[in-house]
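seq as requested:
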Amino acid sequence: MLNINSHVLTVSVFVSALLVSSLTLSVVEQEFVREPADQTVVIEHGDTGYFYLYCTVTTLEADQRVSWFIDDIIFADNTDFRDYSPFVIDESRYFLITLDDSIGSALVVHPVTVATAAVDRGPFKCAITTTSSYIVKTSNVAVVTIYEVPRLGHPLCRMSDPFDENIATENLITLREGDTYTFTCLSDPGYPTVTMSWSRNDVSGSLQEYQWAVNDNGLLFLTYLWTPSRLDSSGLNFTCTVGHPGLLQDRTCTIGGFDVQYTPTVEISSTRTHVTSLTDTILFTCTSDSNPAVNQINWLYNNESISPGNVSRFHFQGLSMEISLFDDQENGVHYVRCELTNTVGTGSADTSFVVDIPPVTTALPTTTGSTTVVELEPTSSTTVTKYAGDLAPAAQQQDGVIIGGATAGVLVVLLIVIIVLVVVIVMKRRNSRPPKSPEQPDVKSDEYAEIGQSSDNVTSAYATVNVAFKSETDGTFAAASVDIQLKAQVATKKGDLNKNIPSGNESTTDGPDKGKVTELEMSKIL
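struct tokens:
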């Protein structure tokens, strides 16, 4: 009896172990064949996208199913959405599909847009659950990343002038030095927002952006202000780069090929800076850096424009000018300016030179008995003075006077300005004959005068001349003091004219010759 019971117990234990082993084997064999995996959805601006998530298993028990979760909230079982899920599914976009030859389902989401990205990104997972919502096994968690990238053709590069007029950038772009131009880069903003930057000659980060904003068309734009200079070559280019994680590589647009035009930068050179001879010439040459080329040249001499037709002393050839025919009347500093003009503007350069030509002077020969006449013009009242004594011998002792006349036509002369030395003639009576009436002096040709220096570098000199008149009737000498103006240029070398000049005098204003002296005969002192 004991043995039978022992055998029955052994069989029962064996059956129980077999059942447990069978149940354990069944649980172990439930595996996920396909689990939800991370997805990246790239949508072009204005378009839509979609994605699939799969969840299949090896086997399911009678009371088991495949359930879907979003952010740990169950929202569907097998192919049915739960109406009581706290997560409300948009069944117009979410679909559960039964897969042939597979246990489980696929979740399809379409259309996907930027507007739905916040919901559609998940995270998603699936699980084997029982009818009592017991979770038997859970899959991996999948996250859906949604990118919206700019449309093909973006970014767009634009350029505008100071008047906000668009500039065509297909060919060589003509600009003016000193003007400020605006580069604008336009792009769809993207999701997440794109990155934008300007670079010069592909040097990243070489420019500071001016403005970042969205225009009325929903386009994101980035501007840069540029003021070109003549140093900017035609090979210069500006590139806008747009970056986005949804793009395999950055997109770019470029503006380049510039013709920067500018006013001429002028330099002037000359073959000499001093003119010291009547035969000297000066050649002036202009050089310039300009774009476009110079189309007009203008020369100014002492701030006055020189006519190209003036070929008497100005000679032109290309960008050169020669000046000749100098004379001593031009002594001093003179200024020359070269003005070069192109379609952009005018540039100029200045220089100066000095004319220092010595005056030409000649000495008049001294001839006994000759007469030199200087035209005089009275400028004030005449004073007549009488002296006693015979001054003829004293006057005849005067010598060493050389009067030089400047050559005609010389305007600026180092003229020895005349100092008028008063020739004081002391008259003596030679005989006892009574003098004639002073109202009618008998004037002969014995006149004596001394002329001295009064000023330098003048064409007319002012002087006072005292002239003595000897009367033939009674031997009396009369002197007339006259303020005069020399009409000719006279150079005087004074001898010793002041010897034996008495100091006594008597002044009168009588006489018919008062104020009428217009000529000075100087034969006696020559």
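The first strand starts at residue 32 and ends at 34.
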